[in-house]
Write a structure and sequence with these properties.
This protein is an all-alpha fold and about 55 residues long. Helices cover about 60% and strands about 0% of the residues.
């Protein structure tokens, strides 16, 4: 897993885009990634609920 593709706020020094590639995330990066994922799930749930209400 590349930090650039999973954590929106990954710094350039940690980013594979600069030639540095890591196959692991720090606990902080993993936590941020999961929090972002949870937020996206909540938005998806809201969209589904709105669509159900339209039907």
């Amino acid at each position: 897993m590349c930090c650039c593709h999973n954590v929106q706020s990954a710094s350039e020094s940690q980013c594979c885009c600069t030639g540095i590639h890591r196959n692991f995330l720090t606990k902080e990066e993993e936590k941020e990634m999961l929090e972002n994922y949870l937020e996206q799930l909540k938005k998806e749930q809201q969209g589904v609920q709105e669509r159900l209400n339209q039907l």
